[in-house]
């Protein structure tokens, strides 16, 4: 027995040393955390600078909130240190009574505790790195339009228009007032719906016939959203109204899908009508405009606007400022995609907007300006509202010259 006492004392000394080492490791980490919080407190409580009187109240409130949070954090930190100290004390006192197995467990616990503290130290930077990587992966550079890739925006014009293609013609005399890259063939986006609407109106199909949105009408080309859910049932007239006024893609697709003979027959009819009207640069592959393969030129679109303006239903629906439809127990409010129809400065007889990244912002209109009936076509405009600004520039230009169009005034630019 006397021989065992030195051995036990040696083991006890090791346990005590291990416990003291644990305290030494924990103390700097806790002190560093509390120091960081104490450094932040004076900044939050600092007085507001000159010129920032309006925000001083908010600064003080924020400072008080931060101060309260820091106080709670320090209190919880002290409580945690107290518990840690008590636990270490209890461990040291109980060291005399530990068996070999318990001592081994204690050593494992101390070792894993050290690993946990290191893991916590690197957790925040690791999370920040993951967030930064996710943000970088989510970022996608803006896609260039076909007009930008072709260099059409480098062509200047007298009115400094933002559209790379522009065409303004008198509907009665066919006199061209402005022409810029008018023969360029580009994607036309939802300007496609003007042909869709014209054919549906001319077909004299029953406008009160109910049409239901199906999964076939859901956009898989651009994955665009729609307020018309699958299963929504509206009349053909309501679908036509939403397609022309609000550029509703599912409504336009449903109109083509339910046409006698089906969607493929309808697309063939669209191309036949284009050829009939002399639209030699025009090609359609579907009735919505979501496909960049739907293409045309400004000259062709001016022909289409002139013909479509002769259809009373297309005129009415395309220029309607807003429209409500009942969908089940809900009433949905739809608005016109062209805000100029609500302007007192404009007398618009027909209009249609369009946009996909390949086409840029597009607009066609028939409007009375300075006593003249003008057809305007703007394609591949850069900027959300630039196509409307281009239309305003043309209107001001014509009005400022009293509607006259001498040869010197005509802006003719070929790209």
Task: Describe, in plain words, how this protein is organized in 3D.
By secondary structure, the chain is of the alpha+beta class. The protein folds into 2 domains: 4-138, no CATH class; 149-413, DD-peptidase/beta-lactamase superfamily (Beta-lactamase). It has helices at residues 4-45, 56-93, 100-138, 146-149, 192-202, 236-245, 249-257, 263-276, 298-308, 312-319, 386-400, and strands spanning 163-170, 176-180, 186-187, 210-212, 233-235, 295-296, 322-327, 330-335, 348-356, 360-369, 372-381, 411-413. The strands form 4 sheets. A 6-stranded mixed sheet has the order 9-10-11-1-2-12, sandwiched between helices. Strand 9 and strand 10 form a beta hairpin. Helix 1 (4-45) packs antiparallel against helix 2 (56-93) and helix 6 packs across helix 10 (312-319). The protein is globular, with a radius of gyration of 37 Å. The model is unreliable at 1-7, 35-69, 83-96 and 115-119 (pLDDT under 50).
Q: Any key phrases for this structure?
A:
single chain, Beta-lactamase, two-stranded antiparallel sheet, six-stranded mixed sheet, 415 residues, alpha+beta, 2 domains, disordered N terminus, globular
